[in-house]
Specification:
This protein has 322 residues and is of the alpha+beta class. The protein is 23% helix and 38% strand. Strand 6 (110-114) and strand 7 form a beta hairpin. It is globular.
């Protein structure tokens, strides 16, 4: 979700823009690009403790680690080599059961640092609603706030839930609306509206000018899985290695064997837990420092930058050259 696709470096664009307001609009576009439609009922993979994903795309290097299993907590660190951008986030969930649906609060701050600009952007995350009635489904909803103290600018986005009738029909409009404002005065500078899985517009309230700040088709149409460039450097904890057998069986639509392979992964994790408990050993993340304060978690990367990864996403033109 960090790296952009189809030749569009949305993350790098956040620092390349000259004006603070343009940089915030780019941060908004990047944040929207991390949203993905939820496929209800499809959950073949449950991240295991210590599982990692290390991938590079262009000048962006990303490293994630599952730092807790009960409760599930994921940590992410990404750096942009050319634009000197640092992104971290710690993600965990608080579900609330409300009869016909489950309201999941996605907790943990996302922090983007534009080091060349000396700017820090803090972002929270939308809620996830899983419905069982009148029609099963899952969708993102709620408010996202993006704030930069150094520029005195902030954005507020609202992911809008569909009506009862639309949910009954099984549709999902995935609408978004919001605003960009000056924090100190509260003055609204831009209106934001559209559909986060299609096109998002921004309207300059002073001039009336409209512009497209995010086009999902352009950003997502070239979505490709990573390829292994150096197998010797791939960690045993890498998702590709952990779930290789499960993935192979799923691609062959051999569901029974896929379930068996998944059970092997889960049994291995249970055995590791049993061994640690017997020896009195505590599990420690390899790539992040983790602090738990009650129900809240905070994750900080142990290294200042993410190195190049053995898994790489290549653009079409790169493949032709190679």
């Amino acid at each position: 979700m960090i790296y952009s696709f189809c030749g569009q470096d949305l993350l790098g664009e956040c620092s390349r823009r000259d004006l603070p307001i343009e940089r915030l609009k780019s941060v908004v576009a990047w944040n929207i690009s991390t949203l993905r439609p939820i496929v209800f009922g499809m959950s073949p993979y449950n991240p295991v403790l210590g599982e990692t994903h290390h991938v590079s795309h262009g000048h962006i290097n990303v490293l994630t680690e599952q730092v807790s299993h009960h409760p599930p907590v994921s940590a992410l660190h990404a750096t942009h080599e050319n634009e000197n951008i640092d992104v971290t986030w710690c993600q965990y969930f608080t579900p609330k059961f409300r009869g016909a649906y489950v309201d999941v609060e996605v907790k943990g701050k996302r922090i983007m640092k534009l080091l060349n600009r000396k700017e820090t952007y803090e972002m929270d995350q939308p809620r996830l609603v899983v419905r069982f009635l009148p029609a099963p489904g899952a969708h993102w909803t709620g408010k996202i706030k993006i704030k930069c103290t150094e520029t005195d600018l902030e954005a507020e986005l609202h992911l809008i839930s569909d009506s009862f009738i639309e949910r009954f029909k099984g549709s999902n409009n995935r609408s978004i609306k919001g605003k960009i404002s000056q924090t100190s005065s509260g003055d609204k500078l831009y209106d934001i509206f559209g559909h986060w899985d299609r096109t998002v517009m921004a309207k300059n309230l002073k001039t009336g000018d409209l512009e497209v700040i995010y086009n999902a088709k352009e950003s997502m149409s070239g979505l490709k899985p990573p390829t292994v460039k150096n197998l010797k450097e791939v960690m045993e904890s890498e998702s590709v290695m952990v779930w290789s057998e499960v993935s192979e069986k799923i691609l062959k639509k051999d569901w029974e064997r896929a379930r068996e392979a998944k059970k092997v992964v889960e049994d291995k994790q249970r055995e590791s837990l049993k061994q640690r408990e017997a020896s009195g050993e505590s599990w420690v993340p390899k790539h992040f420092s983790v602090v738990r304060n009650g129900k809240d978690w905070d994750c900080s990367p142990l290294q200042p930058t993410v190195p190049r990864a053995p898994l790489v996403i290549t653009e079409p033109q790169e493949e032709i050259m190679n």
